């Protein structure tokens, strides 16, 4: 690994360029094959970033203050430099060695490379500032109107950065974290890299290798994510709770009474409450039916229950005794793209757990489904995709009960752009006293004329 740069590139280049090349080769080799070339070179030049076999040109440099000569660089410049070196050196693997045709299918090198770049950045340091790779970064694009599918010829793509870099990278990340799991994905991906190195794969070769090496039917995923502009927007529409009827009249009649009592009292009844009725004034008019409501358990009820219970099989008795809670949850697919369900279930005791349901749950009915959940205690809340791992474009319909959206009303004018924090940090602190003292002798300031 070698770096060529002028002294104006320092201190960034001496500290990071060669280290970033070494890191790239270590990380990319883990997911594909050993780097087969004798050298890897990063050159500081006038272009932002451009790849060639064994050599790449990368732009970012620190800035020099014209007055003081002080050299500083922004966070964006630092991580931009490391990121672009990872990306351009990474292109040695895709498409220099796994030699897909970038003039036909930009995503096969840029998308796959952006995906591996994001893995390498995560391996560089925790909380590496990234804008591509994670599912949550792609939701704005997925919700936007002016799109063409990833599987569009490179000459005709719109929004190249999102279409050919960010969306395939996010898709591969979803495939790895949510659909296949890391072990299965990494094995299938490595198989693709090794099977197609020094050859010229087409999209179908990638799709087929990922499927046969993982032993998983992924047609639905390629179709939705690569061949359409459908987004993910799964909504929890409603929940119906079912209890298993025990047939025990003591329990069932009490349950029915509780249901009835939970109904709101009519407005007329509320206003009449406390008023003396005719039978209150003439108690001799009351009889049996004034003592018992519809929920009184009779001996006939008890006898019937005893006879029925005798006839039950053992497993039926057990199910009755367990007291499980059954919920039928209605989901609808507003975005078009199906995805696994990742359900965060919270119970009355506060216990929380995740239940994962494969995307095949949508196979007979891709627009609306009802899923049965069985819990040990009453369920108090349900959240679909709690970790934002499926690029769901509308989180507001993902929770039951619904959650209020948090936002802020901004009263201050916003500043544009991320600055150079290193420079801002070294800026001398303005003393509050100085201007105050100076202002003491002055008249109150005249009203400032509006800016033009
Ligand atoms: Zn690239």
Overview in brief:
The protein is α+β, with helices and mostly antiparallel strands.
Amino- and carboxy-terminal Cα gap: 55 Å
Task: Identify the overall geometry.
Answer: elongated
Top CATH class of the largest domain? Mainly Alpha
**Sheet of most strands:** 4 strands, mixed
Arithmetic mean pLDDT:
91
The name CATH uses for the topology of the largest domain is Neutral Protease, domain 2
| Strand percentage | 5-15%
Determine the structural class based on helices, strands and strand pairing. alpha+beta
Q: Quick one: CATH superfamily of the largest domain?
A: Neutral Protease Domain 2
Number of discrete domains: 3
Instruction: Give a count of the beta strands, DSSP E runs of length 2 or more.
Output: 13
- Unreliable spans: 436-452
Strand order of the largest sheet: 1-2-4-3
Rg over CA atoms: 33 Å
Q: Give the topology string: H per helix, E per strand.
A: EHEEEEEHHHHHHHHEHHHHHHEEEEEEHH
What ligand species are in this complex?
Answer: zinc ion
Helix content: 40-55%
Q: Figure out the total of helices.
A: 17
Task: Provide a descriptive summary of the structure in words.
Residues 18-225 form the Peptidase M1 membrane alanine aminopeptidase domain. One of its GO terms (cellular component) is extracellular space. Residues 257-276, 412-452 are annotated as: Disordered. The structure is a single chain. By secondary structure, this protein is an alpha+beta fold. The chain folds into 3 domains: 2-227, Orthogonal Bundle (Neutral Protease, domain 2); 251-314, no CATH class; 323-400, Immunoglobulin-like (Sandwich), CATH 2.60.40. Helix content is 41%, strand content 15%. It contains 17 helices and 13 strands. It has helices spanning 12-31, 75-90, 92-97, 106-124, 139-143, 160-180, 182-196, 203-214, 219-227, 249-262, 267-272, 278-281, 288-291, 299-311, 314-322, 421-426, 433-440, and strands at residues 2-4, 41-44, 49-52, 55-58, 63-64, 71-72, 234-243, 325-333, 341-347, 352-357, 368-375, 379-384, 399-400. It has a 4-stranded mixed sheet, covered by helices on one side. It has a 4-stranded antiparallel sheet with strand order 10-9-12-13, with no helix packed on it. Strands 7-8-11 form a 3-stranded antiparallel sheet, with no helix packed on it. Mean pLDDT is 91; it is low at 436-452. Zinc ion binds next to helix 4.
